[in-house]
Amino acid sequence: MAKLKLDLHDIYNKGQLIDTELNRIIQEAIDKKIALVEIIPGKGSGALKKKVLRFLDQKHIRALYHRVEKDDKNFGRIFIHFRH
Predict the structure, then answer these.
(1) Which of 7, 18, 45, 81 has the maximum number of C-beta atoms within 10 A of its C-beta?
(2) Predicted pLDDT of residue 1
(3) CA-CA distance, 71 to 18, in Å (whole number)?
(4) pLDDT, greater one: 72 or 5
(5) Residue ranges of the domains in the chain?
(6) What pLDDT, in 10s, does the model give residues 4-49?
(7) What does pTM read for this prediction?
(8) Which residues are paired to 78 by β-bridges?
(9) What is the 3-state secondary structure (H, E, C) of 42-76?
(10) To the nearest 10°, the Cα dihedral for 3, 66, 51, 25?
(11) d(CA 21, CA 27)
(12) Neighbours of 41 (CB within 10 A)
């Protein structure tokens, strides 16, 4: 199964760039019909993970994917599942 991966460690403090990269990876998954995107906000304080989850919860973004899964084995990972 193909999957895309986005590591946010390098841009954790660049709010607008984070939104841009999240939009880009979601659009790429849709365009290439990839079923799974892995986002790595890292463990840290949890603020970046919360930002990513808030982004994904926006109505127009939520309509693009099937479901979000928080990795129960690794707090610093989020999976976005798509149905194509």
Answers:
(1) 18
(2) 65
(3) 20
(4) 5
(5) 3-39+56-81
(6) 999 998 887 887 899 999 999 999 999 999 999 999 998 888 899 9
(7) 0.90
(8) 39, 70
(9) CCCCCHHHHHHHHHHCCHHHHCCCCEEEECCCCCC
(10) 40
(11) 10
(12) 23
User: What would the pLDDT profile of 42-63 be if each residue is shown by its tens digit?
Assistant: 888 889 999 999 999 999 999 9
pLDDT in the model for residue 62? 97
CA dihedral 52, 4, 13, 53 (to 10 degrees): 0
Sequence letter at residue 54: R
CA angle 45, 68, 76 (to 5 degrees): 25
Measured distance between the N- and C-terminal CA atoms of the chain, rounded to whole angstroms: 13
- Write the Ramachandran bin of 44: left for phi over 0, alpha for psi from -120 to 50, otherwise beta: left
**Kind of pairing, strands 67-70 and 3-7?**
unpaired
